[in-house]
Task: structure prediction
Amino acid sequence: MLKPSPGSEVAGPPPSLQPRRGDDIVPERFYRDLISGIRNGVIVIRHDGTLVAINDAAYASLDMLPGAADVGRPIAAVLADVPEMVRVLEGAFGTDPLPNRAEVKLARTGRSIGFTMSLVRDGLGIVSGAALFFRDLTRVEQLEERERLRDRLAALGEMAAAIAHEVKNPLAGIEVMAGLLKRRLTDNPEAQTMLADIIGEAKMANAIVMEVLDFVRPVRLQVEDVEVAELVQDSLHMADSLVPRGNVAVSVDLPEHLPPVQGDGHQLRQVFTNLLTNAFEALSGHGRLIVQATALASLPLPATPDHPHGPGVEITVLDDGPGIPDSVRDRIFNPFFTTKPRGSGLGLAIVRKVVDAHEGRIEVHPGPDGIGTCFRLLLPLAPSLDAAPVRLPDDGAPGGPRPR
Ligand SMILES: Nc1ncnc2c1ncn2[C@@H]1O[C@H](COP(=O)(O)OP(=O)(O)OP(=O)(O)O)[C@@H](O)[C@H]1O
Ligand SMILES: [Mg+2]
Result:
């Protein structure tokens, strides 16, 4: 370490006022490249609100195209489509302390942006600008939500399985005894009617119990090459037999050479049957149903080291029915959530479970112009199915839900 020379013992200017040695050595271009290479979004403004720097990650997170002439313009004009970000940036000069790890939701795209801010000070310590560092947290939030849902389902599943097991045997007993009694009381028409009702109700209760047991059983996939066109046609027939479509106009728009999906054909049929059944029920015999599919070279799903964003198919099921109110949209995939008098509320819960096992994703959105409902399904062509649960259920019965 260098010893201070005698002259340097005289108190010098504070460190912030000393010339910065780096300024002469590191070219300005380097700082620009540094900002553009940062993988988080960076936006820097001057005190007067003009844009000094913005990188590509920022444009991407805000769903904007880079504009060559943006630097130097007022930030309110550059980010006119994302006023929430303008408010955050402009608020920097009057906020103390500045937010660290705060979040803002963008109304236009629904994205959640996590951000941190810093003030830019000149050599005299005077604030000359503000810098915003941010990241799109939407995907992280979705993963957390799925994780939470999985935990909830696991707890609910254990409880439901225990109850269903306990209820199954007494129900079977009731059905058998009522059958015996019915055979003995052949000369009593009133008793015959009542016993027939008891048997009918016990059968229905048993069907519900079996459905719950099927639902809580881990998914076991029997993987094959599944043609999407066949899948959709078979599911349309099945849905039509469950809920006659009436005057609903159905159009299926699939490209000719759609690649097959590796998955469990039976369970994927069930996914589409449930989606189409719901659509027919929502339409009550009138309206329009459109099924479309597109091959995607790279699925917008969280990548794993073994499976970077691989190819897949996007399939949408769109109806122009009454739609799903915002207040319940978050709950429709929960088991037992139903708005129908005779619904079990397991249809979409099964859909999500099967789609998860195929490492895909299912989303629901309002249809175009806010009319109707659009379910969007993303399926990888070749999921790493070792990640999917393949445990056999304890009783050795075939896994996975049966057609409903
Ligand atoms: N296409 C749709 N249009 C309007 N609402 C829908 C649509 N699909 C689902 N829903 C809503 O989501 C709820 C849950 O659907 P889900 O398929 O899980 O259960 P369900 O149809 O009520 O009963 P189940 O399918 O077990 O007979 C429905 O009750 C309905 O309110
Ligand atoms: Mg349903």
Remarks:
- The CA atoms of residues 237 and 273 lie 8 Å apart.
- Confidence is low (pLDDT under 50) at residues 1-13, 386-404.
- Residues 274, 278-279, 282, 319, 321, 324, 332, 337-340, 343-349, 373 surround adenosine-5'-triphosphate (ligand 1) (CB under 6 Å).
